[in-house]
Amino acid sequence: MRSRRLLTATLLVALAAFPLAAPAAAADYERVLNGTFETGSPDPWWSSAGVTNRVTGGELCAAVTGGTTNPWDALVGQNGVPFETGQSYTFSFDAHATTAQPVTAAAGESVSPYRGIASQQFTLSPVKQRFSFTFTSTLDFPDAGNGQVAFQLGGQAADNTICVDNVSVIGGVKPPGGVNPNPAKKVQVDLVAYVPGLPKRATLVSTATTPQTWTLRDSAGTAVATGQSTPKGADATSGDPVHLIDFSSFDTAGTGYTLSVGEDSSFPFDISADPVKRLRYDSLAFFYHQRSGTPIEAQYVGDEYARPAGHINVAPNQGDNNVPCRADLACGYTLDVRGGWYDAGDHGKYVVNGGIATWQLLNAYERATRVGDASAYRDGALNIPEKANGVPDLLDEARWEADFLLKMQAPDGMAHHKIHDANWTALPTRPELDDQPRRLSATSTAATLNLAAVAAQGARLWKTIDAAYSAQLLAAARKAYTAAKANPAKLAEPNDGTGGGAYSDDTVSDEFYWAASELYATTGDAAYRTDVTASPHYKAASLNRGGFHWGGTAPLGDITLALVPTELPAADVAAIKSAFATVADQHLTAMADMGYAAPYDNSTAGYVWGSNSTVLNNAQVLALAHDFTGAAKYREGVFEALHYILGRNPLSTSYVAGYGDQAMTNAHHRFWARQNDPTLPIAPPGSLSGGPNSALQDPVAQRLLTGCPQQKCWVDDIGAYSVNEVAINWNSALAWVSGWAAEKSTPPVPPAADCEVSFTAGRWPDGLSAQVKITNTGKTAWTDWTLGFSLPGTQRVTSGWSAQWSQTGRDVTAASMSWNGSVKPGKSVHIGFNGSGAGADPTVFVVNGRTCKTP
C-alpha cells in the first residue's frame, strides 16, 4: 500500500479517452489477491481516511463517512497489481450499497505521478449485482510492480456502506508471480558480525565444480586473507549450487570487512562481539513496543515510535476495560484485560502465544541465575519505565504479560484462549485509533495450562523479590491446573478465526506435562511429581529436531526439570540432559550438509509459518546442550544459527530489522507500516521476521513467490503476513538465544576441576570388570553427582553397582544413588560395572559438568 490515492480530476478526464477492448483470449491470469475474502481478512485491500474496511458475511464492506467532495476522496484499493502494456483485462465484481450511489472502479498507478489506465462508473443499489468492464493497459507494471485497482466511494453527502465481493481482474499473457524480488549476493555472509574466536563461514553460490579463490578485504579494500572454497554441489532447500568458504583462520576484530570471489562481493560485516551484545537488548525492547494499555513513551523508544496507550476505553477505542465474551458464548461476565503485549502485527492478545513468550523470557533469566550470568538483566539494563525499581528488568518486562495472563482467568479457574477485535483490523491502524469492539473467545484447556505453567514458574522467580506477587501467581497456577484437570479436553475452536488467529490445538498432553513440571519444580508437591513422571513426555520423550513451539510445549517442562533442582532421580535428570545433547548432535550432523547451515528439520512440512522462530528454538536446544556438557561444538552451532538469521541465507537478508545492510523493513504490522503510510515508522531494530514459509499462506506471497525453493519463500512486504509478520513468541526466541550468545561471545573459561577420577579394569577377550573411584577435591560438599565418560571400541556396560548406569552409543552415565550422593570435600565414592566388548580405558571423565583430574 504505497499510496491510497489513485485518481485526480485531471486523471479522470484522461481516462475518458481510453477505449475498451475485447477480452484477452490467451490466458485467464488472475491479477487480484483475496478477491473472494474467504480468509476472513481484508488484506491486502486497504482503505483511505474516512473509510473502514471489514469482512462481513464473506464480503468486504466499507463504512464510508459522508461529506466528501470528490469520488476519489474515499477509496478502497489494492496495490501491487501487475499489468502489461497492450494487454486486455476484464475487471469484474459483485457489489451493493445500503443507499444507492455511484461508484467508480479504476485501474492505474499506485505511486506518483498516479497515471491512470482505465475506469468506469457504476450505480450501486441495495440489491447485489454483478458489474464488469474490459480495457487495454497503456502502462506496464509486470511482476506486481506499482499497479493498482481501486473503488472510488466518495462525493456523497451522507454516510453509507458499500460491500464488494468476487473482485477479479483477469487477463494478460504473463502469469503473476515469480522469484523473490530482493537482490541476492553470490557470496552470502552474516551481514552483521562474526565473533572473534569462533568459526567464520560463508556460502558461495557457484556452478563451478572446482575450488574457487576467495579474498577477505578490510574496510580500506586491502586483502587480509585468501583461500579456496569447498564445492558442496546442489543444495535442494535453497535451490542454489553452493560452495563452503571457511575464513576462521582470520580473527582480527574490525568493521567493514567484505568477502569476494572474482567480481562477486558480499555485503560488509564486522568481526566483533559487540553487535550480538546489542541485539540482546534490542530484541527485548520489542516487548515494550508491543505493550498494550499504556503509552509508549519517546524517552524510551524515540519520537518515531512513541504512541498513546491503546485499548483503554478512550475514544475511538472501545477498550479492554470490560470485555464480554463473544455473543454466541454468553458467559455472563466481562473481564478487565488491559495490559499485556499485542501478540503480533494485529491488536489481538493470545494466551497460548503469551504463555510460551513469557516463559522464554523468564527462562532466560532463570537459566542465567543457575548456570550463566544474570547481571545482563539487572535493574537498569533495559530502557523501560521500570528500570529503577530494584527488580531485574527482564522480570519487569515479563510481568507485563504475566499480569495479563492472570486477568484472562475466568471465575471457574479456566483461562480464556484470546481477546481481539470482533473483525480483522484494517492495515494500517494505530492501536489508539482502533474503533472495533473487543471480544473474549472461549476458555480452553491449552490456555489454562499455559497460565498454570507460567504462573508457577513466575512464583518461583519472584519468591525472594515480591513474596505477595509470588503467592498470587502460585494460587492462580494451582487453581488453573485443577480447572484444567476437571476440563481436560476443552479445545480451542479451529474455526474461531474472525478478527484473530484461531490457535487451535487438538493435543494438550504436552501442556499438562509442562504445567505439572513447573508446579513440581516450584512446590515439590507429590501430586505434581506423579503427573510429571507418569506423562508420556517424561524424560524428554518429545524432544526432537522439530523443536518446540506454542502448540508443542513438552520440552519446556524438560528444560525446567534439567535446570531446577528437584527430588527427581538423578538418573532421570541426566537422561533429560543427555536427550538435549543427542538432539543437538542430530542438528549438527544435518547442518554440516546444508548450503546455509541452520538447525531446522524440513523433512515433513517444509519451511513453516514462523520458521525463523523454529531455527532459534532449536538453537536454544544447542545452547542448553552446551550448558549441560560444556562441549564447544554446541556453542559453535548456536552462532551458526544466528548467522543464518542475520544474513547467511539464500536471500542475502537479515531477518532482524536494523541489523545489516539488507535487513527486514516492512514487517506485517498495524503501526510499523511505513510501506502503507509514510507517516508511520518501519519495524524497530531487533524485530524478527517470521521467515520463509513454503506453504505460501497469504495472497501476496502466493502472487510473488509461486514456485520458490523452500528457503527462498520470503518477501519483505507488509502484506505478506505468512512470511513477514512479527510475533512475541518469535522475538522471545531471538531474545533468549541472543542473550545466551552475548554471554558466550567471549571464550568460555573452563570451570575449575573439583574432582578426581581413577579407573582400573580387569579385561578378558570379550569383556571387562571396572572399578571407578570418584573424589571430591573441591571445597564444597556434593549433594548428588553424575559421572560421564566414553568407552572406546565395542565396550558396553552390562551391569553395574553403587550407581544408576546408562549408556547411549559410547557415552556412559553413572548417577548417584540416594545413599551415596552426598560427598564431602576430600572424600571419595567407589562404583563399578561389568561390561562386554573390547577397547581401551576411557581418558576423560566429567563429574557435574566439570572435567576431572586423573591420577
TrEMBL record:
A Pfam family that the UniProt record links to this protein: CelD_N
Organism: Lentzea pudingi
Keyword Hydrolase on entry: yes
Class in the EC hierarchy, top level: hydrolase
Segments forming domain CBM2: 748-855
Keywords from the UniProt entry: Carbohydrate metabolism, Cellulose degradation, Glycosidase, Hydrolase, Polysaccharide degradation, Signal
SMART domains: CBD_II
Signal peptide span: 1-26
Active site: D716, E725
Protein's UniProt name: Endoglucanase
Reaction(s) catalysed by this chain's protein: Endohydrolysis of (1->4)-beta-D-glucosidic linkages in cellulose, lichenin and cereal beta-D-glucans
Family classification: Belongs to the glycosyl hydrolase 9 (cellulase E) family.
E.C. no: 3.2.1.4
